[in-house]
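Listing 4. Sequential folding, example run.
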Amino acid sequence: MDKEYSSIVFGGGCFWCTEAVFRNLRGVISVMPGYAGGLMVNPTYEQVCAGDTGHAEVIKIEYDPTQIRYEDLLIVFFATHDATTVNRQGNDVGSQYRSIILYSNEQQKCEAETFIEKLNEQPGEKSIVTEVKSLDQFYEAEKYHQNYFERNSDQPYCQIMINPKLEKVKAKFHQLLKQNTL
């Protein structure tokens, strides 16, 4: 009997960071960096970075809902990026770095919107600006972006930006991690 997997697309800044975070979660089958949310067909990294495509850097997560809940993915997503800044994550500025959830069914949409409403009800917190919209098309990123952290963990960007996120995930979400990761 084949298992039924679900998928969701998240954008929360540089896809090298988000890919590295979600790749380590139990129940996540695959994580593919790419582009979505815009209008241009088959965009390249250079075109997306120029800001003319409307696309965001995103990751497509395929997961086993019997091992990890969609809500857990939302919790990790919102804990590992700043969902209160428009078109910016740290030093990465532009619409390609916006916070976005691209859902594939109405249940995902409703759960994401409810989750965001609850976050916005917390006193003293900034409002969430995450865009929630239907996934029209996902375009895989170029090969050199795939598994970037695994292949380049000694690079300065990975050391300065990705390692701290992974440490945060390890400390805060250890119960969601795959065996022997991080």
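-- end of first protein; second protein begins --
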Amino acid sequence: MSKGYRWPHRHLLGLEDLSAQDIRHLLRTAVGFEGVSTRSVKKAPTLRGKVVANLFFEDSTRTSNSFALAAQRLSADVLHFSGKGSSVSKGETLRDTARTIEAMGVDVMVCRHHHSGAAVQLAGSVGCSVINAGDGQHEHPTQGLLDAFTIAKRLGRLETLDLDGLTVAIVGDITHSRVARSNIHGLLKLGARVVLVGPPTLVPKAFVDMGCEVSSDFDAVLPHVDVVNMLRVQFERIAGHAFPSVREYAACFGLTTRRLAKARPDVLVMHPGPMNRGLEIDSAVADGPNSAILEQVAHGLAVRMASLFLVTSVKPRTKRSASNPV
């Protein structure tokens, strides 16, 4: 870390807006928080007196619980909000909902929303910090960060956080994946080569403009990668027929034990969850020695603790403004 660096961002809205220096600083901060989860008393006083509000307008298991536990490990109070059964169902806007909750004395809002750009809109409407927990098809920054952390730790790059020379394949439904977009931004900034794999309907050539390579031949790509990150097919976001059948998709793009045999023996297998076992990944692979799926979950806790700590370290805005929220 360069001398004099200080975390500058009051919000964490996406990795596209972060520099490589920012990303490395956050991941190094996460290293420092890893040990909290191994203590007999799994608590640190870092955010004592702070209030973290989890605003989840979409269903979530991993991200919601991970942020809640991360805040609790840092001794913050946690307010849980679900769009279901709230005033949102009566027509209340995101802005009004957020400002109502902020008036209760909230310091950080963690927001997941089905609309792309919702986190940016929220950041421009409130005076507290905002962390994007996934907005539509835009970004999921903490997932991208925890994936980079997992790769660096498993492949011996955690000290430098330099991924030069590594090739990462992201496989599946890229079009609808906010996880893929955050991974692309983060991994490229850390020096990795990124190859996107999937049917042309779900991996359009436009992604080349982001600095990636694109392929529809998983078997040709697999022997040459260090990491393969399997994504769920997001049937709920797909309109029409993106591929002929589920069976054909699994045959062409599913990571089976037979297909894994074509990869390097030490290839790292990842998946952000939830998994469709038997579709994009077989159970024997997901639970096998190459898999880092549960490690991703564990590292996500440290990354989210670091994210909460850093955004609250920046002096809050005293007056609401719709100007640049970052």
